[in-house]
UniProtKB/TrEMBL annotation:
GO terms under biological process: 'de novo' UMP biosynthetic process; purine nucleobase catabolic process
Matching PANTHER family: ALLANTOINASE
Class in the EC hierarchy, top level: hydrolase
Protein EC: 3.5.2.3
Free-text function comment from the UniProt entry: Catalyzes the reversible cyclization of carbamoyl aspartate to dihydroorotate.
Name of the protein in its database record: Dihydroorotase
Reaction(s) catalysed (UniProt annotation): (S)-dihydroorotate + H2O = N-carbamoyl-L-aspartate + H(+)
Gene3D superfamilies reported for this sequence: Metal-dependent hydrolases
Sequence ranges of Basic residues compositional bias: 191-201
Cofactor(s) the protein needs: Zn(2+)
Organism of this sequence: Candidatus Scalindua japonica
Top-level taxon of origin: Bacteria
Record carries keyword Hydrolase: yes
Length: 440
């Protein structure tokens, strides 16, 4: 990556500038910050970037990624994950805490964030676990983890089983103004505990043993009720069912402080495709019916679902090249999300271009309190986080060209239109035309 004291982006169609309508503007970056946005800016000392016929938007924000560090760096790490993000147009990510060991203490979080400052080429943040060891028995110290830098609390793929424990987490979240981000899904751990106990827990969502992984909407209903009781903010990850969308819509109408996200795979793929794709389509929550896919799309379009997040979950070939029942859950998405959204949601008219940009920039930044750093918008005086997008660029997904270490992508071979062609963080152009720009 090359450091420039000044970068001048010329003649791009610029989105998400406070108090400015979308239009053709120049952007001057000076000493890592956006100095000026306007017409016909000139600066003889700046590196000039021609963005004519391109769009210029805030760097994309993904609030749901797994970089696997610490503990499973053979699948992904801060170096490879941040480069995959930059290639996809993302300048900011928030990682899940299900590492090994999990991020459940201030010391572990501080250590991880310190390493990230050295190894990540983008803005890296992390959630903390909601319970110690992600085991659902005892709450973490939410106050100290917020001070250490946690952007939310989440047990990632595990629902917080105990109702009293979940209510306490929400009350603590309200007290310390920390977003509670439950994963309302059945994890293998949850199902094993159900089987071991051979009975249902009172007031705890259950699903028919013949239809696993169907309790998402029941968990969402329970957690909505608890959040309403606690007066807390709650954010629902990877919504996948029509019933879930309906329950979130009803909660919003009642004034519950709830937001939600959807992932590209739940927006575009149905369970009918699993047999064709194989284990790279094994994910939790699983791919659903075509009716569910349409309902999630509609929820995203009407604002019931607030944002798009990739749930980038890298795995090694060893973990995926197994029988379907034994293969790991998860797929990767940082390098495909933008292209998929532009091609299959914006071009057909499911979303407007402005909606899609907002759902991947300013809205996730606001939900996770990153907007106060200028993330998600192009605000003069704040650190530059910018992506230049060519809406006309046609390309084919090729997992062998990914910067991620993983290849578990169900979209391999898809033909897309619209791609990030330049990613800028501060005074550095970190990606240009699909290449990561290393130090020279």
């Amino acid at each position: 990556m090359t450091d420039y004291k000044k970068i001048l982006i010329k003649n791009g169609t610029v989105y998400n500038v406070p108090n400015k309508k979308t239009g053709v503007f120049d952007i001057l970056i000076s000493n890592s910050r956006i100095e000026k946005i306007g017409k016909n800016i000139k600066d003889k000392d700046a590196l000039v970037v021609d963005a004519k016929d391109k769009i210029v938007v805030p760097g994309l924000v993904d609030v749901h990624v797994h970089f696997r560090q610490p503990g499973q760096e053979h699948k992904e790490d801060l170096i490879s994950g941040s480069r995959a993000a930059a290639a996809g147009g993302f300048t900011t990510v928030i990682a899940e805490p299900n590492t090994n060991p999990p991020i459940d203490s201030p010391s572990r979080l501080i250590k991880l964030l310190t390493i990230a400052k050295r190894e990540s080429i983008i803005n890296y943040y992390s959630k903390s676990a909601a319970t110690v060891g992600l085991n659902g028995h005892r709450l973490v110290n939410i106050e100290k983890l917020k001070i250490a830098g946690a952007k939310a609390i989440s047990d990632d793929g595990h629902p917080v089983a105990g109702e009293r424990l979940m209510l306490n987490a929400l009350k603590k979240g309200r007290e310390y103004d920390v977003l509670v981000n439950p994963h309302c899904e059945e994890s293998p751990l949850y199902r094993k505990r159900q089987k071991d106990k051979k009975k249902n827990l009172r007031n705890f969502p259950d699903s028919d043993s013949n239809q696993p992984y169907e309790a998402e909407a029941d968990f969402i209903m329970r957690d909505i009720g608890l959040a309403e009781k606690a007066g807390a903010r709650i954010h629902i990850s990877h919504v996948s069912l029509a019933k879930s969308v309906s329950e979130i819509a009803k909660a919003k109408k009642r004034g519950v402080k709830i937001t939600a996200e959807a992932a590209p795979h739940h927006l575009l793929l149905s369970k009918e495709t699993v047999e064709k794709i194989g284990t790279n389509a094994k994910v939790n929550p699983p791919l659903r019916s075509k009716a569910d896919v349409k309902a999630v799309q509609k929820g995203l379009a009407d604002g019931t679902i607030d944002i798009i997040a990739s749930d980038h979950a890298p795995h090694s070939a060893k973990d995926k090249n197994l029988s379907f029942n034994k293969a790991a859950f998860g797929l990767i998405g940082l390098e495909t999300t933008l292209g998929l959204v532009l091609t299959h949601l914006v071009r057909p008219g499911v979303l407007t271009l402005k909606q899609a940009i907002d759902q991947m920039t300013i809205l996730p930044a606001k939900i996770f309190d990153l907007d106060k750093f200028g993330i998600g918008s192009l605000t003069p005086g704040t650190k530059a986080n910018i992506v230049v997008i060519d809406l006309k660029k046609r390309w084919k997904v090729d997992v062998n060209k990914f910067f991620s270490k993983a290849r578990n992508c169900p979209f391999d071979g898809w033909k897309l239109q619209g791609k990030a062609i330049m990613t800028i963080v501060g005074n550095r152009i970190i990606m240009k035309e699909g290449k990561i720009i290393e130090n020279i």
